[in-house]
Amino acid sequence: MKNIFNILLFFFSTLLISQDAGFSNILDAVYPDKNTLKFFKNYSIDSPKNTIYNINIVVKSELNSVIKLDYESDSFNKIIFSEVLDVPVEQNTGLDSRTERFKGNINPYVIRRAPFRIFEIIKPLSSNTLISKSNFSLINVKIPIDKKIDLDKHRIDFTVYVNNQKFNLRLKINIHNIVVPDLEKSNFFYTNWFNLSKMEEYHQLERWSENWYKMLDKYAKLMAYGRQNCVKIPRELIYIENDEIFLNEERMMSFINVFLKYGFKYFESPHLLGRGKNDDWGSPELITNLRNVGYYSDEGKKEIEDITRKIKQFTEKYNLSEKWLQHIADEPTSVNAQCYKDVANQIKNIHPNIQIMEATNTRESLGNSIDIWCPIINDFQENEDFFRAREKLGEKILVYTCLVPGGKWLNRTLDMEKIRQVYFGWGGSKYNTMGYLHWGLNQYKANPYEHSVVKHPSPAAGPNNFLPAGDTHVIYPGDTEPLSSLRFESHKIGCEDYEILESLKKIKPKKHKLLVKKIFQNYTSYTLNIKKYEKIKKRVLKNLKT
Description:
The structure is a single chain. The strands form eight sheets. A seven-stranded antiparallel β-sheet has the order 1-3-8-5-6-27-26. It starts with a helix and ends with a helix. About 0% of the residues have low confidence. The chain contains 13 helices and 29 strands. It has two domains: about 160 residues, Immunoglobulin-like (Sandwich), CATH 2.60.40; about 280 residues, TIM Barrel. The protein is α/β, with parallel strands linked by helices. About 40% of the residues are buried.
């Protein structure tokens, strides 16, 4: 009997020992199966005002454990708990581009060898209780920090119950006297291309219906929360009927007003031309998107003229000229650059004040045709002198990623460190690149809960051409609303950091340069040490106390 008692005691003790809970930084990679990172019972953070601070709580337990959460605070009473769901990573991002399968080169700069699963989707809890689905659970904690909060040090005491075992956690918050500007006053340009059809598919909505507008409002609210301040106009609102071009003013304004409500500053026009239905990258002539004819045809030039006049009339009527960003053709190359320039000249002759913005794949051959350049991030770094020269002519520069680059380059695939997303803001402040563009807010090519790596959809794509993990999206479709992700939250941190860094640059430019350099040198050289990042950010905040 004594031996049986000892065995049972040992068994239950083992269960108790296997349970644990503690804080982890939101930038930490956490996995549902196993983790080597240290998580903490006590954690100190530094924060500006007018933000929502994110921190995670990691819970180690047996499968199907009951986890309950509670907190006490004299300063904060609107804390939001969310369960973080995991997603698969089927292939690693490539060293050169896309996935490793594309060229067969192993990429050593990934957080873990695929296949694996990683915590990613932030799903708000209806109550402060959840059931563990794996050896590790991750809870996201959002703490709203008001503009008017006092500068004293604040404290939040959390209690985590795991199968009735109690863990006490303490979070100390040091508030600094710098206010993150509201979105309408933001300085960092940030856009993720929004797919309306995917919103409708996953939420079963009819376009332009009452419920559609309600869901659109939820998506706009989430984008604005993540500091996205620009959205693409639906292509269908500029259309052709009986060989005549129309712009649906009423619907366009109803769409725009949803986003203006949340402080959006810019609206991207749909692209006017492309490479045709077969995605022909070798053709020097661009194809119009409405009539599907070559630009140099009479019908092609007439299409561009009519659309431009409609846009000019619309933007002037509704005082949107400074907010409207005109796309011509996505990713122009040296092959079709002359055609692109000819289109740009035609547009500028009709509407001189319009701002032409484009994600580009070439440089010199596009000179004097673009107002806002958006080179892929490695193109900018490797050809910075060219873009600096364009700046001197009054043009603006931002950067983008799309499938590429891989390796050490900043990007936001699921097998990269999330601090890389933060550094888009630091790079923007260092290089005066005014923002960041990505093609995939919710461009799902498969169920994002089940697949992160998908086959490239282009007709010209070969059998080994895959879109890397999470490249198609950075938010997720929930049951009744869109859901944020840890990558989306990381981008948000970077956007806010940019605002803080720019404030420091204005008053202490030398200090700004010194502190940025300590953790970020360029888009391939930066520290991955989160503690060091937090330390330098704290110094930035302290230098702004006056």
